[in-house]
Amino acid sequence: MRTRVAVIGGGQSCEHDVSLASAASVAAALDPTSYDVVPLTIGRDGTWRDRGLRPIGLCGAAQVLRGCDVVLPVVHGPRGEDGTLAALCELAGLPYVGSGVRPGAIAMDKWATKLVAAAVGIATTPGHLVTAATADHERWTHPVVVKPVAAGSSLGVSLVAEPGALRPALDAALALDSRVLVEDVVTAREIDVAVLRRADGTLMVPPALEIVADGLFDHELKYGGHADFRVPAPLTEVDAKALEDAAVATYEALGCSGVARVDFFLTDDGPVLNEVNTVPGMTEHSQVPRMFAAAGMSYAELLDELVRGAHR
């Protein structure tokens, strides 16, 4: 008998389109001999829609979800990745894929993630918090990166190289979130590490991926098809071990489940944590599936592992 899997995509965040692509790819790749896929979409306005994109509302969606064996949320960003959908599943008693409420909420909050990482000895990018109330007092002293605290897909992220660009960068980030991070520019290699908790409870860390970008790895470069992803990343044994250890320590400290992507800057002094994604991009060509492919695990096998490891 096939397992009935609800794949949820879309959402109300600025990552709506990215989430739709991930959800469509996941739904198409789940083995039809093992899984009966039930797609659900959350519109930009919050309206839940069924397989035929007919509006069914939250009550209708709850009826559909109750008829499924497992929920696989692929909603990036706020009101999805931040633990919101995990909470819905917890309250409804539905098995679901991925991290729970607390790790989803903490990891989505880049400032809170920094605090957790620092507590377990993981270096993070130097930076400070800015709000709408304090933005007027912010002064440019050196090049910085400005980013929303709880947004993803590099949206609202700006590299500020001169004084006149600071306020527009703050405004752009504050348009997406009420809190903003202003971080020092780290000149280093950008390395992504994926961590998967398998169905048997063991952790798997595939070969790391390096992002080679000339300047800021922004939304256009990330999704425009021109990003240079190198996997396995060319790393020394020492650097590879340091990155893996830091990624696992971060994953465990946050309490993650399923798969998470932990993004680092690799400096001369070792790994520096950038951010954590508990619902990373999941098209077949996204970073995480590429890393597992390098470890010999196909896209369909990765999805199968995730579904079998769902919270029960």
Descriptive account of the structure:
One of its GO terms (molecular function) is D-alanine-D-alanine ligase activity. There is one protein chain. By secondary structure, this protein is of the alpha+beta class. It folds into three domains: 94 residues, 3-Layer(aba) Sandwich (Rossmann fold), CATH 3.40.50; 143 residues, D-amino Acid Aminotransferase, Chain A, domain 1, CATH 3.30.470.20; 58 residues, ATP-grasp fold, A domain (Dna Ligase, domain 1, 2-Layer Sandwich). Helix content is 32%, strand content 24%. Strand 13 and strand 14 form a beta hairpin. The two termini are 18 Å apart.
Give the tally of β-strands: 14
**Helices and strands, in N-to-C order?**
EHEEHEHHHEEEHEEEEHEHEEHH
The description of the largest β-sheet is:
6 strands, antiparallel
Low-confidence stretches: none
On the 0-100 scale, what is the average pLDDT?
A: 93
Task: Give the overall form.
Answer: globular
Number of discrete domains: 3
Q: SS-based structural class?
A: alpha+beta
- By CATH, the architecture of the largest domain is named 2-Layer Sandwich
* Count of helical regions: 10
* Helix-residue proportion: 25-40%
CATH topology of the largest domain: D-amino Acid Aminotransferase, Chain A, domain 1
Computed Rg: 19 Å
Distance between the termini: 18 Å
Beta-strand portion reads 15-25%
The top-level CATH class of the largest domain is Alpha Beta
Topology:
Blueprint: E1 3-10, H1 16-29, E2 35-42, E3 48-49, H2 57-66, E4 70-73, H3 84-92, H4 101-108, H5 110-119, E5 127-131, E6 144-148, E7 158-160, H6 166-174, E8 179-184, E9 189-197, E10 203-204, E11 209-212, H7 219-223, E12 228-230, H8 237-254, E13 259-267, E14 270-277, H9 287-294, H10 299-308
InterPro entries: ATP-grasp (IPR011761), ATP_grasp_subdomain_1 (IPR013815), D-Ala_lig_Van_CS (IPR000291), D_ala_D_ala (IPR005905), Dala_Dala_lig_C (IPR011095), Dala_Dala_lig_N (IPR011127), PreATP-grasp_dom_sf (IPR016185)
Catalytic activity: 2 D-alanine + ATP = D-alanyl-D-alanine + ADP + phosphate + H(+)
Protein name: D-alanine--D-alanine ligase
